[in-house]
Structures are given as C-alpha cells and as structure tokens.
Amino acid sequence: MNTFYLQNRTPLFTLLLLTLLWTIFAIYSPQTFLHSRIYTSFMSTIPFTAMLAFALTLIVIAREIDLSFPSIVALGGFVFAATFKATHSPLIAFAAAVIAGLVAGCLNGFLVVMCKIPSIIATIGTQFFLGGLTTVLADGLALSIPEIRDTWFHQLMVGRLFDFIPAQFIWCLVILGVFWLLLSFHVIGDNINFVGDNPKAANLMGVNVNATRFQLFTLMGGMSALTGAFISLEMCSWWPNQGQGYMLLVFASIFIGGTSMLGGRGTLFGTLFGACIIGILEAGIISAGLAGFWTKLVYGVIIILSLITHSFLLIRQQRSLKR
C-alpha cells in the first residue's frame, strides 16, 4: 500500500469526523448551523486554541510536553495590556508580550535541557511560578484597554474583513502554513521528527537534540504569549486567569488530530481539524437542546474513539510497511 497515502490518512479521518459532526448539528439545529453568525463566532475563538495547539504539536512530536502554556498566555496578555497602557503603542506592547513569552519558553528549555528535569515536572513548576508571578505583577486586578479598539493595530490583528471574517482566522492560517513548511520541508522539521522517533539515533545522525528541544520550548513560549496578546486585543481587556481553560481544549485538539503521545508522528492539519471539532462541539451540544455539562462527556467520548481509531490506523500502517 502507498506509504504517502497511509501517512496522510490521519488528517483525512479527522476531517471526516468534523464533517460528520457538522452534518449532525446542521440537521438537528439548522437555525444555528445554517446561519453565518455562528461561523463568525467560530472564526473568532477557534484560532486561539489552534495557534497554541500548532506549537504544542511540535513539542509532542519531539516526545516532550508543556503544561505551562496557560500561564504564559496570561503573562503575554498582561505584558501586552500593561505595556499598551504605559506607552499607548500597540506595536511596542505586542513585541514586549512576545519577548516575555520567549523568555518564559527559554526558562522551560533551561529546566528541561540543562537541568535534565522531565518536561512534565518542569512545566508544572513553571505553570505555578509564571501564573503566580503574573498575578502578583498585576496585583490580582484586571486591566481594561478599550481605547485600543480605535487603533490600526486592532483592525489588522483582530478586525473583521468584509464584516464577516475575523483577522485572527487569517493569522491562524498563516501560522499554520509557516509551521507546516518548517515541519515538512525544512531541516528543522526533520530534526523534530528524528528526535521524537529516537533521540539516541538522532544524536548519532548529527542532530543537536538538546538544541532542538530548547528551540521548541522557546517557540511554545513565544506562541503562548502571542496568543495571550491576541486575546487581549480581541476582548480589549486582560484578566488574571486569562489562559485558564485552554489546557483541555489544546490537548484534545492535538490528540483528536492524530498526533502520537509517544512522539515521532503528528500532523498539523489534523490538529487544525481537531481544534475545529472541539470548537463546534459545545455550540452543537447546546443548540441540540442538551445542557452544557454534557460537553466534557462528549469531549471524552470523541477523544477516546479518536485515539482508538488512530491507533488502529497506525497498526495497519506498520503492518503494511513490513510487507
């Protein structure tokens, strides 16, 4: 069987699942899912989950984990809002937020690569540290920046194109394209896959395993803070628990999309489709007449079924490659 076909079956399965869910919701709630307003809402919120999931997908492919990104989202949003209030320059504020995220990512990379602390332990620690630091710096108070709505930067980053398409949706696709090109056609992508598949073999092949891991954690920090700045721009405000709630959504997007927790295998397009599935589920469940507390149950069922299916597809792929 064609290897390329097998390797690309995972995102196709996730896309099929997304199409199936949309069809069910459209049949049972046409007044919601056949109206354009709901899609403007989806394109406003799903990109934030997707952007975080893209960067975390690369980390998971490299057989690492990062649990600190919700706190870095809050840190980035705070730095953006506080800097904007101090300078009235959205561009300076945006740059400051990304730099803060890169520094936080470097801290994770230092703990994992230099101090040899397992990434799950290190990032649990930095999640509490960065979350607490952000809250202390803000004195536990939210920041409101309504005046940013009148700036050109707000229109560029989160404005509405043709009064329908949120700009963050376009930026999300741009980020996806850049990450896909790096993962598929650049030596960086080869290094990530080699490290995730077999770190010792990658090291023997000349791949700088430690540098690759450090770069990935730094990238995740920068992307998390960038997402926090996007959220502050969209909401014209910042609040201390801004990043909370993304943990489940991001990991669900990644694993529904078919990225292996064991590393060495993952797909960014699968992650995108997974984020779309997660994004439409709650609206679909509520519009179908079910209570909101059904959402987590449905999340769990879909994640488990997706993992079983992806595992089955992987086993078939491995058997086919042995023939």
* Sheet with the most strands: spatial strand order: 1-4
Largest sheet report: 2 strands, antiparallel
How many helical elements?
A: 15
Instruction: Name the poorly predicted regions.
Output: 1-7
User: How much strand content do the residues show?
Assistant: under 5%
Helix content: over 70%
Number of strands: 4
The backbone outline, from C-alpha atoms, is globular
* Rg for CA atoms: 20 Å
Describe this structure in words.
The chain is 77% helix and 2% strand. The chain has 323 residues and is mostly helical. The protein has a domain at 62-154 and 186-241. The longest helix is centred in the last third of the chain and has 29 residues, at 294-322. The termini are close together. The relative contact order is 0.20. Residues 1-7 have low confidence and may be disordered.
Topology:
Layout: H1 3-7, H2 9-28, H3 30-33, H4 36-61, H5 69-87, H6 90-114, H7 119-137, E1 143-144, H8 152-158, E2 160-161, E3 165-166, H9 167-185, H10 187-197, H11 199-204, H12 209-235, E4 237-238, H13 246-256, H14 268-287, H15 294-322
Antiparallel strand pairs: 1-4, 2-3
Provide tags for this entry.
77% helix; disordered N terminus; 323 residues; mainly alpha; two-stranded antiparallel ribbon; two-stranded antiparallel sheet
Question: What's the gist of this structure?
Answer:
With 323 residues, the chain is mostly helical. Helices cover 77% and strands 2% of the residues. The protein starts with a helix and ends with a helix.
